Structures are given as structure tokens and as C-alpha cells.
Amino acid sequence: MDNFTFVDRPDNQRLQLMKDVYSELNSDVVKLFIDFQWTYRNMQKQYDYALDKNGLSESRFIILMFLYHAPNQTLLPSVISEKLGATRATVSKLIKAMEMKGWILKSTSTTDKRSLSVQLTETGNHVLENFLPENFSIVNNLLDSLSSEEIQQLSNLLKKINESTQKYTQEMEK
Amino acid sequence: MDNFTFVDRPDNQRLQLMKDVYSELNSDVVKLFIDFQWTYRNMQKQYDYALDKNGLSESRFIILMFLYHAPNQTLLPSVISEKLGATRATVSKLIKAMEMKGWILKSTSTTDKRSLSVQLTETGNHVLENFLPENFSIVNNLLDSLSSEEIQQLSNLLKKINESTQKYTQEMEK
DNA sequence: TTATAATAGTTAGCCGGCTAACTATTAAAA
DNA sequence: TTTTAATAGTTAGCCGGCTAACTATTATAA
């Protein structure tokens, strides 16, 4: 899932120069936006690295989690796609690769021949259970610097950003 | 640059169930981590969408910015790669596509035949200058919900996260 | 009942990340 | 000076996103 993290970020001076030309530029906001991207990407990079060491990617990990919690540890590709928020085409690829690794089993349904059952295997279970403790530990490490008040604070700020993003999205959809 | 945004995020109940098995799980931190990813991805999705409407991607946009500010609006691919924080292979692809669009001009150096000059064209300039006002406006919209104090607050929190990420990264590199 | 529409999944091909292997050129060392 | 290193860039091929076009099956409507 990994994005580059552009290194040469504009400093205050360069932003000021731009502001001379583009009066609508709000330096503080632009700077915050870039900082937000930067922080996320550095964090995500480390997270992806840890996943990769375990033969995982974030989407593969999440799919394992979905199956883990599913009744009979079984789900349809269409349901996985919906839960994951990715297209069926993407899920189709992921599932195929996971089957090759022996983490899941595919079997066609008898009632609806269009449908497919995706079931977690023992191997898949092990891969997941082996990674979970590391997962929680990494997340703790990455956010280690925040006190519980700060966690609450950040949570509130994120909620606000979600609201404005949501608002903007809705305006665009009109 | 676009990532999926997984839809079925674990709620408090599911996290509690996991905590029964994995005592090292810190629900608040895990929830924050997922919220952070969610917020970033929703925001980025809208940003990418706006870029796309202008025939741009974030990396293409940033490269245009680098060239825009460069002396003689010219840079070497290796320098672009370094500034962008992406590999030369990636930049090679991007540059090729941008040349096809007529946004840049490639010319081999006379002094060092290995080197390549990448120069912004008039067309490239127009594409950039056309997008810039929209760019600033979108960023403002996406972060519209934050007061100036909240901007400062968030900026500080991001800095802290950068610190813990940095610390974790260094530990991993040992 | 038969034709049409909706649904489930796959495939092909694009994009932008990546690594690894390659060519060409220049610089450094023997 | 000649061999070896380093450097600049490209290419091939993997990954995981995407859309659009496809097959097969099931459901709906004429």
C-alpha cells in the first residue's frame, strides 16, 4: 500500500513566495496537510515493513481477520470486497494469491453455482495468530509518544477532519 | 496513490474480544491507529480525485512543482528521484509519461553523456498554474473544520507521532 | 416459457510503487 | 594506461489498486 514520501517538502519561505501569487493559499493549512501526509506515510511504511516480514500485506492481513471472525471462518468474495472497500477484481487477485500460499480454500457453492466459498485454513490461522501479537506491539510503538489525553485529543481532531472531508465529498457529488 | 479504505473496521466490542486473548492489545491505541488511517485515506481519496480530474497524480504534480521552482526550470532525473523520495525506476516511468503529454522536455547533457536534462515546457507550466488555485482551495476545504488553535494542536501531535515512528524505525535498523 | 436483467466472479490491461539486472559513461586505482 | 568502481538512466517483472469487458448462472418480466 505504499506510497512514496516526498522528501523535499516546501518550507515556510517557499510557501510565502507562492502566497504572493496565490492569495487564497493558507500557509498553515497547506503545511498541516503536508505534515499529515508525511506522518501517515512514515508510519505506514514501518507498518507495511512489519507486515512484509511476515509475508503479509495490509489487505491480506485484513482479509485473514475478516475470515477469522466469520461464521465457520468462511466468506464470499463479494462480502470480502464490500468489507474491505476494494473492488471484486482486486479481491479476486488477492484471494488467488492467498490460495496459492495455502492460507485459504476456495470451493464453489452447491446452491448457487455463481458463488464461491472462501474458508480460512489451519495454515492461514497460524500465519494470523503468529502476527497478531507483533501487530499490537508495533501499533503501540508507533504511537508510543502520545499520552492518553493526547490520544483523546487526536481522536477528536481526526473526527473533525472526517467531517470536513465528508462535507467536501458531498458537495463534489452534487 | 490510492489505497482502499477498509470499511468493516473493528468496533470496541470486537477489540475487547481480541484483548481477552491478546493482553498486550491497547484498544484505544489500536482504534486511534485505524482512525488515523481511515481519516488520511478518505482525505487523500478526495485529493487524488481532484488531481485526476486535471490529468494529474500527486507525484506528477510534485514533479511539476519541483521543476517550476528549479533554476532554468530544469532538473536531473536523479535529483527528482531524491527530492520525491521515490526510486529512479519510478521516476523514469513518470518522466516518460510526462514527456508523452508534452509537459517536459528531455535532452542529454553534452558534458556528461550519462546525464539527462528534464525541463518544464510551456504546456507543463500551464497545467500546473491551472491546477494550483484549485489545489489550495481543496486543501482548505478538506481541513475546513479546524480552528487555528486546532491546527496548532494537530501539528504538535503529528510531530510527536513522527518522533515515536522515528524511534521505532531506528530500533528496527539496529 | 422464454427473453431480459441482475448478480458472482474472472480476466485483460493501465497505473505507480518496488527490486534486480542491464547498458553506457565517467572516475578512480593499480 | 589500463582495469576496476561508481554513477546515470532504463527495462523487465512483481504487487495491489483500478475500470471495463467478459462468462456463467440465477431471477424477473413479458
TrEMBL record, chains A, B:
It comes from the Bacteria. InterPro entries: HTH_MarR-typ (IPR000835), Tscrpt_reg_MarR-type_CS (IPR023187), WH-like_DNA-bd_sf (IPR036388), WH_DNA-bd_sf (IPR036390). One of its GO terms (molecular function) is DNA binding. Gene3D superfamilies: Winged helix-like DNA-binding domain superfamily/Winged helix DNA-binding domain (1.10.10.10). Keywords: DNA-binding, Transcription, Transcription regulation. Residues 22-163 form the HTH marR-type domain. It holds the Pfam family MarR. This is MarR family transcriptional regulator.
